[in-house]
Structure formats: structure tokens, C-alpha cells
């Protein structure tokens, strides 16, 4: 849909199993409606399951022909992505702080 405004989802400081349901529910609502920007600047800790969920949300947005971007990813989040070997899965959707 041309002209659809991007919706923003801000990740909490701790994106672990306890936070996963709330984050997932917020993403489900927006990835079906249009472009999405996920702000990750405050992430201090992120679980593997949360990273996999973000990759899944990006794929869902892509299948719906909507953009999904993760902006201002914090150093702890980038470190988790690299440590787990998931960098390729975040290519094209991830922007880094001070990049």
C-alpha cells in the first residue's frame, strides 16, 4: 500500500522469555498492516528465541510486501546476533548505532 505510514515498535531493555509474548503480540498486530520500524536502542539483554522471532517477523512483513527495519540496535543486541551466527538473517533489516 503506497503511502502507508510506518508503525513503530520499541523493544524493552530485556527481551527474554518473560517479555516475548508481549513483543510478539505487538508485532503480530503491525506486520500485517504495513511497514514496521523496530527500535532496539534500549536492549540490554536479548534471548535467542527473541532474535528468531524478529527474523520471523521480518519474513512475514516481506511476504506481505511491507518493509521491516530494526533501527539503532544496541551493542548487546548486535553482540548476541554475532555470537549466535545470525548476522545473515538480519542483513537488510538491521541498522547499527553509530553506523
Strand content: 15-25%
Low-confidence stretches: none
Q: If you average the pLDDT, what whole number results?
A: 91
Structural class call reads alpha/beta
The end-to-end span amounts to 30 Å
- Looking at the chains present, what oligomeric state does this protein adopt? single chain
- What percentage of residues falls in helices of 4 or more residues? 40-55%
**Gross geometry:** globular
Q: Please give the order of strands in the largest beta sheet.
A: 1-3-5-6
> What count of domains describes the coordinates?
1
Separate helix tally: 4
CATH class: Alpha Beta
Gyration radius, in Å: 13 Å
Describe the structure.
The chain is α/β, with parallel strands linked by helices and 99 residues long. It has a single domain, classed as STAS domain (Transcription Regulator spoIIAA), CATH 3.30.750. The chain contains 4 helices and 6 strands, in the order E-E-H-E-E-H-E-H-H-E. It has a 4-stranded parallel sheet with strand order 1-3-5-6. Strands 2-4 form a two-stranded parallel sheet. The longest helix is centred in the middle third of the chain and has 16 residues. It is globular. The mean pLDDT is 91.
Amino acid at each position: 500500500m503506497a503511502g502507508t505510514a510506518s508503525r513503530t515498535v520499541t523493544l524493552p531493555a530485556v527481551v527474554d522469555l518473560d517479555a516475548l509474548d508481549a513483543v510478539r503480540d505487538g508485532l503480530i498486530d503491525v506486520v500485517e498492516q504495513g511497514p514496521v520500524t523496530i527500535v532496539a536502542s534500549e536492549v540490554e539483554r536479548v534471548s535467542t528465541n527473541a532474535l528468531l522471532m524478529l527474523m520471523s517477523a521480518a519474513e512475514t512483513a516481506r511476504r506481505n510486501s511491507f518493509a521491516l527495519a530494526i533501527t539503532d540496535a544496541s551493542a548487546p543486541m548486535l553482540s548476541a546476533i554475532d555470537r549466535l551466527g545470525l548476522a545473515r538473517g538480519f542483513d537488510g533489516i538491521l541498522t547499527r548505532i553509530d553506523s
